[in-house]
Structures are given as structure tokens and as C-alpha cells.
Amino acid sequence: xxxxxxxxxxxxxxxxxxxxxxxxxxxxxxxxxxxxxxxxxxxxxxxxxxxxxxxxxxxxxxxxxxxxxxxxxxxxxxxxxxxxxxxxxxxxxxxxxxxxxxxxxxxxxxxxxxxxxxxxxxxxxxxxxxxxxxxxxxxxxxxxxxxxxxxxxxxxxxxxxxxxxxxxxxxxxxxxxxxxxxxxxxxxxxxxxxxxxxxxxxxxxxxxxxxxxxxxxxxxxxxxxxxxxxxxxxxxxxxxxxxxxxxxxxxxxxxxxxxxxxxxxxxxxxxxxxxxxxxxxxxxxxxxxxxxxxxxxxxxxxxxxxxxxxxxxxxxxxxxxxxxxxxxxxxxxxxxxxxxxxxxxxxxxxxxxxxxxxxxxxxxxxxxxxxxxxxxxxxxxxxxxxxxxxxxxxxxxxxxxxxxxxxxxxxxxxxxxxxx
Length: 420
Fold this sequence. Notes:
By secondary structure, the protein is an alpha/beta fold. It has helices spanning 5-12, 52-55, 117-125, 158-166, 171-199, 204-231, 252-268, 295-299, 305-331, 388-397; strands spanning 40-45, 80-84, 134-137, 274-278, 333-334, 337-338, 343-348, 364-368, 376-378. Helix 1 packs antiparallel against helix 5 (171-199), helix 4 (158-166) packs parallel to helix 7 (252-268) and helix 7 runs parallel beside helix 9. The N and C termini lie far apart (53 Å).
């Protein structure tokens, strides 16, 4: 009995890869995490990192002097924590695949990736909103991965995403959407039955793998039922116009701004509580005054003074847009708190130094989310805790009772929460 991968993809409308079984060549704990206070998580990756000399402060602790880059956020220094010394997985640019999963070797041939931190969180709190999670990208590929090691397709059209979130379809379009969802459920029923028949012929190890796969199918079925109800529920109205997509792929600042604006709207309307964003890393010169080379070329500067000067211009502009997102979240209120207080915004990279392709000393900034901020947490890179320890802290802040995530040894030391 053979299960068609194409049929599975058609059913899901998202990524659900058939697991690798021995016959062809730890399931995460689940539980409710609903809380009276909505908590949210935004994970942003700058795939070319930030120049370490201008990003990291020279002092640690509470009274550190702001670095040139962090000075752009100076009025909000008590709203964020900068973290140094943490290392990601090896692999240079390919390490991007493991940025939110922490799976060693992710992105390398023959290595099966694991679930990303946002998708794990979605298993607990994703059923509370219209979108279980949103995966956004300025360059095509996204950061999110399913439990079966498949990449979650990313939204890279702000115009279409705005329509999905806020524009009501006519009756014909609504009925077509409902019919599509029901067809997907029917196909999943068929796929599940075929997989169950296959199970009888497998050994113990393969049966365990297939059971995990069947649980993924059940997750999809549950989500499709929820989606049917949301199709029948009026969408929120916002005081914003549908954006126009930016055709110029080198306009990384303009594209980032659109994604951040939509992120704010999605959080403000509680359309989702989990968002990942892959920023662009262009090879062509971005339309920024004083910049004549592509961002990728500049990030591989080899300490050339001219390239470093232009790189600083690009990275400062990126951080200015990040600053604007923080401002919007801080000025938006939800009950007795700001959206920033209830939303952790994680900005980082898979590369500590793009020029040398190093994955050590990753640039990490965590804002909002009810953590005690205002400090520079500096770890000794020779025996620093795993990056996944940060993800455990973030998951726990979402109300999810976990004490490990992939390579994590526990929550990140030194990162504490407020009572908010």
C-alpha cells in the first residue's frame, strides 16, 4: 500500500511530509495552554546577521553603554534585552533551516529537520485564533517547520495576506472556500485510512514514526474544522488600506516595513498569536542612499572599510524599521497593558558573522513579552547554553509547560519575567 505524497500535500494546503521509514530506506507532549491574558510571540530572522562590532555592547549587565546599533532603540532600552555569546547550529547560510528548530545539521543533505518553536506553540494555542500561526517572508522561504520536518509555506505577498485577514469574500467565494476545506478533510480521511493499513506491515520503529505522522494528520483535521468556523465568522475591520506589493526584490527596507505593518495589524486584531518573519538578504543594491552594492555582498565585507560603511547604512535602516514596530506595539493597548507587554518580539540571526559564515555569538534581541528587560545578558561563548534554552523560556512565557526543546537544557538563565 503506497500513500501518495502529492495527495497528502493537496489535502493539507500546508506542508505535511511523509515520514522517512526504515522500510523505505519523541513526539512532543501536548496540553492546553489557554490563559486569561493573551500572550504572543513574534520571531524575526535577519539571515545575514548584523555587524558584531556595532551590534553588541562592550559591557554586560544593567548599566551597559548602548552600542551604535542599539542606540537607535535608546528610548526603549528598558523594553528589550540584548543577548550575546549564544551559538546556533553549524552550517553557515544553511543553518537558517535550524534557526527556530535547533536541529543539528538542519539544512544539510540527509538531515531531517524538526518542529520549529512557533509550530510547537501553535499545537497548544493555535486554536484560539483565526490563524494558528503566520509565516511571513521577504524573500520566499520561511522560518517555520512542521513536526514531520516539512517547511511551512510562507506568505510573501502583503497584499494577499491583508485580503486573507481583513477582506470579506462574496457569497460565492465563501462557499468555494468551505467546499475546499471539506475536500481537504475528505482527502485526509483517505490518507489516514491508507496509512493505518500500511501500519500493519511495519516494524516497531517504523510504526512509532508512522504514529507521529498520523497524529499530524489528526492535527490538520482538527485545524480544518476550526477553519470552517472561521470562514463563517466576520473578519475584523481595520483602519488601514490594502497594501501594494513591492515588485523590487532588492527593496528590503520597503518589504520589511510592509511585513511589520501587517504583523502589528495581525496582533492588534488578535488574528494570530504566533508570527515568524524571514527578512530579505538581497544580492542587488537596495534603494538606499549611499549604498551601491547588494546586502549579501556587503555582509561578506572581509573588513573592507568601504563595504563596512555601506553595510552599516543598510543595517541601521533595518533596525529603524524594527524600532517602528516596537513603537506601534508599545502605543497599542489591550486592556490594562500594551501589546508590547503581551508580545515577545525576538530579533536574531542564524549567523554571528556573515563575513566568515560563523554561527557563534549570534546577535539576539528580545523585546516585550513580560520579561524583565534593560540588561545585556553576556554568556561565555566557550560554554554558553544552547540557543534552544531561550526558546524554552519563550514557550514557558506563552503558558506552555515545557522544560526542554530539542537541544535545550532548560530555560535561559538570567532571563526573568514580570507579573504582567
